[in-house]
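hiii so um. not sure if this is the right channel but i have a protein structure encoded as tokens and i wanna go backwards to a sequence. like what aa goes where. can anyone help
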């Protein structure tokens, strides 16, 4: 109580520069994919994760242990790294069906006052942050193409490359005999895949809730 009765002085002591983040934890939530096998591998990508280590483990699960499905998930600053891991795996294995789900996840940050009042209680702040989160399911087996976020396996580019090297016209007039038109350039495909739309946060993007914790 002494920290609250000192008038303007406790306000000065409560400046954020006197606080240091001591702990961060994620809100646990189930994966947003129905009918997943109980032993499905989830790769939780963190901001400081090494892509090489993630991919070595993920490729071992899919190739050596014969896993049929794998999930990559990440939130906040790890979203971009999560997408990168997925694109690497799709390029290495090929023929993978994909479902992408974007949502918000709550992070809990605990900040500790490094300069508390003499004789006063320890002052901690708990900050609740809503950050964008992405979960991507990759599957060797076909998935429901009608569900939101589904992407079919990438088409093979070999046919288009051979036609171009042979000097033949690859315009629409020469693709009439093909079962489907030639795919767009790889750069365009990557651009489409990286255009992830984030839904509006239920609490408002960029807002945080702060709750003081008083520990005696």
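sure thing!! here u go:
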């Amino acid at each position: 109580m002494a920290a609250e009765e000192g008038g303007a002085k406790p306000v000065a002591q409560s400046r954020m520069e006197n606080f240091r983040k001591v702990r961060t934890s994620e809100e646990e939530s189930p994966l947003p994919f129905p009918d997943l096998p109980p032993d499905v591998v989830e790769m939780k990508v963190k901001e400081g994760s090494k892509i090489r280590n993630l991919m070595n483990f993920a490729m071992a699960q899919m190739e050596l242990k014969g896993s049929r499905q794998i999930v990559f998930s990440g939130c906040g600053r790890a979203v971009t790294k999560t997408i990168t891991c997925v694109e690497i795996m799709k390029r290495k294995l090929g023929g993978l069906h994909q479902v992408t789900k974007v949502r918000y996840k709550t992070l809990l940050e605990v900040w500790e006052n490094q300069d508390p009042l003499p004789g006063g209680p320890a002052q901690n702040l708990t900050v609740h942050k809503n950050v964008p989160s992405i979960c991507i399911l990759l599957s060797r087996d076909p998935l429901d193409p009608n569900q939101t976020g589904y992407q079919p396996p990438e088409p093979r580019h070999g046919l288009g490359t051979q036609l171009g090297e042979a000097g033949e016209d690859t315009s629409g007039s020469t693709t009439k005999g093909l079962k489907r038109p030639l795919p767009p350039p790889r750069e365009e495909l990557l651009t489409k895949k990286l255009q992830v739309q984030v839904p509006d946060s239920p609490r408002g993007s960029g807002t945080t809730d702060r709750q003081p914790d008083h520990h005696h």
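oh and The CA atoms of residues 157 and 186 lie 9 Å apart.
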